[in-house]
Amino acid sequence: MASSTDNKITLYMCPIVISHRLYIILSELGLPFEEVEIDLGRPRDPSYLEINPRGLVPSLKYNGEIITESAIIGQFLADAHPSHLVLPSNAPGGALQRARINFFVDAFWSKVVANLMTFIWAKTDAEGVTHIEAYIEGVVKELEPLLKDAKPFFGGSDKLTLADALTAPLAIRLLALFKDGVIPSNLEVQLKEKAPAFYAWAVAVSAHPSVTGIFKEKAVVDYYKGQIKKARSTDSEQ
Ligand SMILES: N[C@@H](CCC(=O)N[C@@H](CS)C(=O)NCC(=O)O)C(=O)O
Question: What is the model's pLDDT at position 17?
Answer without folding.
Answer: 82
